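Figure-free illustration: sequence to structure, shown twice.
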Amino acid sequence: MRFLSPARSARAVAAVCALVPAALAAQLPVSTGANAASGPDSRWEVATNGGPFAAAQIVASPSFEWAPNTAAYRWISSLATASTGGATTFAFRLAFDLTGYDPATASLTFRYAVDNDDLGVRLNGGAATLGAGTNYQFGGVQTLTTGFVAGLNTLTFNLTGDGTTDGLVVDVQSFTAAPTSVVPEPGTVALTGVGLALAGVVARRRRQA
């Protein structure tokens, strides 16, 4: 059997001890249309006229009046054409999970634009804040630092449309939050025990030598 040197054993144990549950990056806030150029947006949902939520559709060819799409963000609507056939209300919703983070330290910075009229942004159903631009262009940068909760959070953008072209674009510029302490999972503890036992065997062999 081949044994590790004490130095390598120590590094192996340290590496095992550093194991933590999978990162939550895929669940944190993202811009509209950030993960596809067309089709449904896998993270954003939309409800019209108070109906049920369904996956929002990425508008691959925005109206010439709209701020242009980029690789970082794209317009979304209830239909890929952005035409809904009649005046309606929209609620666009993003769900994100702060499990593993301290919600008191969370800070989300973003900007957004709507077509047609902005009714405000709500974090977890709280008070609405306004910040959309006019003429379908981005408004000022917004920063949310309160209202986050542990676990699942929702960010909802409400607006009204005229049935011609209606949609939303959100540019998430940054999100920061301090991680909470993580208790190792049972499998991680078991691996750590194996590493420590191996280090002990190496130490005993060296003493016997």
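We now fold a second protein in the same way, so the two outputs can be compared directly.
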Amino acid sequence: MASEILAAIFRANLVGGLAILAVLALRLPMRRAFGPELSYGLWAIPPIAFVAALMPPPVTLDDPGVDPFALAHDHSTLALVAWLAGLALTAALFTRAQLRFLAAAGLGRAGPSVVGVVNPRIVMPRDDGTYSAEERDLIRAHERQHIARSDPRAGALGAVFQALCW
């Protein structure tokens, strides 16, 4: 069973990587032909390909060739545990970075940016005279566009896939 899980993870990473290469090759011609929105939308292809590659054919213990006792002696269990440890470490590093950014934002030392997945909000640095009032309005309008396009959700989904494919 562990070897099947590892094979699925490997297959999904390979397919996802190939999809990323395809998007990299297609995004500039697509942008020229159809505009930036569609070009940006191509980035939905790699996670879809990744998930699709995880769909295994149905197998039951009644199928010929499936030996449930052989699974206990499968050395790929150690590799699966290592992958899970990498997943946990990557998720912890992302969480730590996000918490540090939020702490800096709380002190007015971060931004401009949008934070939050469920209820996104705009974070602006403390007004130290770096930006004029008109520039700050433009920055806020820019960040509102990120919220309108659901970019924070796309970023969170990207972080999930980065952790899965560490």
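Summary for the second example: The chain has a mean pLDDT of 85.
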